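The step that takes the researchers longest sounds almost clerical: writing a folded protein down as plain text. Below is the pair of lines this work produces for a single protein:

——
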Amino acid sequence: MLYRFFLCLALGLCLPALSLASEPDRTRQLLLISFDGAGDNALWQRSRNFARTAQVRFTYFLSCSLVIAREDAGLYKGPHHKAGRSNIGFAQTREEARTRLFHVWQAHQEGHEIASHTCGHFDGADWSVSDWKAEMQSFRSILSGAWAANDAATEEPEDWRKFVAGIEGFRAPYLSAPASLFEAERREGFVYDASTVTKGPLHPSEKGGVLAFGLPLIPEGPKGRPIIAMDYNLFIRHSAGVENPSRSAEFEERAYAAFRAAFDRQYEGDRIPLQIGLHFVRMNGGAYWRAMERLVTEVCGRQDVGCVTYREALQELGSHAADSSGL
């Protein structure tokens, strides 16, 4: 199905299928919610519990340093960095890492998608193809051997390594997306990238042999100024990156209003998939998680809305494109 979608893009036949505002009965409004880092085990549990009742499937962009115990940090070396370095740290203990591995596997079993957010969360804006490839290979190698490395070899699920080898999605830390990134992704078997930013919701486009999703700019706040649809960017705008829990309800309302308006604009219009990104951090007292949960609770039960993973979105978009073009 993905091959047919690539072919459709190459032939320029996808646009009729992907611009279905005049035929809303033929396409669902897709909502893609993703999490970067996927570290905090309490938020793993919260997100999985919420998903079970809210008819939503998430994409988790996992940083693999978070399944390495601090005592084993020296086993990882990022490009142009000393061994044992990571911008987001490591698991404090092997027990913590084992708990995280359990969440990763259970989320996979529950229909969520696990994708790559590299290992050390370094800015690869100036990296070569070889640098990116090395980091991508570290991700698969470390994640493949993570159960054994954390004293749980006998608990490793039977299909764990097959699951790791089949991870198809990638988001670069800091949304750094040089041309070398896309080339490396293609060579390392990734099907899609989610690292770019677009002026508004757009359909994925081909870049260097992979499909590129862009986090959209959406209007936010009293003046409707554009902002990336991501919690960190809201955190910076609302409180200059400084926690201000006393205004958490206010920030939640602003985020929710922006998310809901962006959703309604697509739902009532072109029905281009809407992407919203979050982190496993309760910024401003959890304001942005609560805003996301409100939106999901309100819209994801509708028959003509699909709150899906990136992989599922590609399959659905590919199906529409192939049906329209007759492929």
